[in-house]
Design brief:
Elements (H helix, E strand, L loop, with lengths): L16 E6 L3 H12 L4 E7 L2 H11 L3 E4 L9 H9 L5 E6 L4 H10 L3 E4 L4 H12 L5 E2 L1 H4 L8 H11 L4 H8 L3 H15 L4 H10 L9
Parallel strand pairs: 1-2, 1-3, 3-4, 4-5, 5-6
Helix pairs in contact: 3-4, 7-10, 8-9
InterPro entries: CheY-like_superfamily, NreC/VraR/RcsB-like_REC, Sig_transdc_resp-reg_C-effctor, Sig_transdc_resp-reg_receiver, Tscrpt_reg_LuxR_C, WalR-like
Pfam family, one: Response_reg
GO molecular function, one term: DNA binding
Length: 218
């Protein structure tokens, strides 16, 4: 029981938002640390230029927010990297990248990150995004990315991606969709352009990473 006259403090301003910076470009990393340290409610608890170093620091300091570059020297790719850091239950993950391809952003958002911020953003936006992510106001996405009007996939396109992800050839896909292999090839090329990918192999890899190849029972 609380005694009469007891003062209960509800001021949480003293608790700073702990931030871990993960960036393989030394100049960018130093600049970020210097600028974010000046924010009165933010505390940079560590910096790392590799996945392994970042994971060690994350386990040591349990940061509230991890500002994560997608391209690290010891990483196997954006999807796996994002999933690894999203598995750290004590931290929220805010991607900080120069990557502007909608397909890549979709992959990492599906992996569970809380936001996707471009490196071109001003410091004030970066600091505000960290606060938003910490307080659960997600997803946080750079305005430049949302203005790109990411293409909506039709049910037919999703079906095609599913068949590609399962390893079917054009002839087999054509037989299932009651169309010619040449038509399938044109549909694939249209999807490559729509998703802004490099070619058929990139499209198949993207489809697999996005989970299109999974069976319903998986």
């Amino acid at each position: 029981m609380i005694k009469a006259g007891t003062v209960i403090s509800t001021d949480k301003k003293a608790e700073k938002i702990k931030v871990l910076l993960v960036e393989d470009h030394e100049a960018t990393l130093k600049g970020l640390k210097m600028q974010l340290t000046e924010e009165p409610d933010l505390e940079v608890v560590g910096t790392a230029t590799s996945k392994s170093a970042a994971l060690k620091l994350a386990q040591e300091h349990a940061p509230h927010v991890i500002l994560l570059d997608l391209h690290l020297p010891d990483s196997s790719g954006p999807k796996t990297l994002s999933e690894t850091f999203c598995s750290l239950k004590s931290s929220r993950v805010l991607v900080f990248s120069g990557e502007t391809r909608p397909a890549i952003m979709q992959i990492v958002m599906q992996a569970g990150v809380d936001g996707f911020l471009l490196k071109s953003e001003p410091l004030a936006k970066i600091a505000e995004a960290i606060r938003d992510v910490h307080h659960g106001r997600t997803p946080v996405i750079s305005a430049d990315l949302t203005r790109q009007n990411q293409p909506h996939l039709t049910s037919a396109e999703r079906h095609l991606l599913t068949l590609l992800a399962r390893g079917l050839k054009y002839q087999d896909i054509g037989a299932q969709r009651q169309t010619s292999p040449e038509t399938v090839r044109k549909q694939v090329e249209a999807l490559i352009d729509k998703l802004k990918l490099d070619g058929r192999e990139s499209l198949i890899a993207w489809a697999v990473d996005s989970g299109f190849g999974k069976l319903e029972s998986d």
